[in-house]
Amino acid sequence: MNDKLKTVQDDLAFLRGLAEGGTERAGLGVAGGGLYGSAGLLYGIQCLIYVAQENGLVSLGGLGNLILAWLPTVIFLILMTIVIVVERRRPKGGVTHRAINAAFAGAGLANLALIIVFAVAAVKNQDFRYWLYHPAVVFVLQGAVWYAVFALRKRAWMLAVSLGWLATGVAMGLLVDRAGLYLLIACFGLFAFMAAPGFFMMRQAMDRPAGLGA
User: Where are the transmembrane segments (predicted)?
Assistant: First the structure.
């Protein structure tokens, strides 16, 4: 009887693990977490250079600014392509794992649509400030995604990340006329709420198989 009860408990634990996305607490896994963290690092460094330029510490010129504007995105797209190719060969996670990945993918698609909206508005009205609202909205959107992740995973740090995204997004939206503060807040948000959580999730996913009881 005890052996049968233990077998049933083991089966339930296995099914629960599948539903919760296996051993990956955050759901993005090693590759997904690394990609998310890399995006925060790339765009955070880009933003930091803009801050330095705004304060007269560096001067990139026209070509330098053009390269700085596109290089992080080019590098990120290369990394994303590699991750997609690698992850496609691996077995899919559980329901929660797929839901989290779908939420981030949906946010990415929304970001592409928002680029068109704000770029057209900026060009049509000949006002660059319209474009500056785009990152603010993206930050708020990330906050919404992370709240969904928190609702699925129930980790307090995920709620903190969500609130951090929301706060920085609102602050940026209110400071589009103050470039220095706008850039500093954006830089902080990218490092604190994208790079740090992304690499933390990557490390967590790497460590979990060796110590499932942690």
Answer: 67-87, 99-124, 130-149, 156-175, 181-200
Q: Could you state, in order of their start, the residue ranges of all structural domains in the chain?
A: 30-206
- The span from the CA of 200 to the CA of 114, in Å, is 28
* ∠ CA 129-48-75, rounded to 5°: 90
Q: Which residue has the tokens 């304060």?
A: 55
Global pTM reads: 0.79
pLDDT tens for 134-182 read 999 999 999 999 999 999 888 999 999 999 999 999 999 999 999 999 9
Three-state secondary structure string covering 116-131:
HHHHHHHHHHCCCHHH
Residue with tokens 């007269």: 56
Contacts 24+ apart (CB under 8 A), 16-20: 17/94, 18/94, 18/95, 19/94, 19/95, 19/96, 20/94, 20/96, 20/97
